Amino acid sequence: MKLQIDNLDGGGPLDYTAAVDVSQLPKVLRKLNQAAELRFSLVADSTDFVVPVNGARVTLGRMNGQDLFTGYVNAPPGFDYLGWGQRGPVYRYRFVARSDESLFDRKRLPDRSPFVARSAGDALRQLSNDLLPGVLDTSAVQNLDLLPWYVPDPQKKWSVHAALIGLLARANYRAAAGALSFAPVGAAVHTLSEADSSFCPEGLKLAPADAALNDVTIAGLIEPRAYVKDYFVGDGTSLRFYLSQQPFVKLSQTIVNEEYDGAALDATSWSKTDPANAVSVSGGALQVAGGTGADGQTTVVFAEKIELGGAFVLQHGDVLFNAPSNGVLGGLYAGGITAGGCLAGFWVTPNGSQSDIQAVIHGVRSGPVVATVSGHHYVLSTRFYASAIYRKQQVFHSSAHPAGSGRGGSDIAADVRVVLEVHDIDPGNPATLVAASEVLFDGVISGAPGFCTYALVNAASMNCSLAFTRLIKAVDAEVRSALPGQGYRTRLVGSQSDGAECVVTSSEALQFFAQWAPAANEQIVVRYRGNGRALARVTNPAGIAALAHGSDDGVRAALLHLKEPPPRTAVDCENAALALLDDGGGSGWAGEYDVWNDFLPGGQDVFPGDAVSVSAPSRGAAFQAVVREVDVEVEDLGGEHCRYAIRFADDASQRLGFELESSEIAASLGVTAVTADSIGTNFLAELTEAEITAVTSTSVTVDAGAAAPAGGGIEVRRSDVGWGPDNDRNLVGRFTSQTFSLPRLSRVQDYFLRPFDGSAPPKYSRYSVALHVDYPA
Question: Smallest Cα–Cα separation from 313: which of 380, 225, 411, 224?
Answer without folding.
Answer: 380
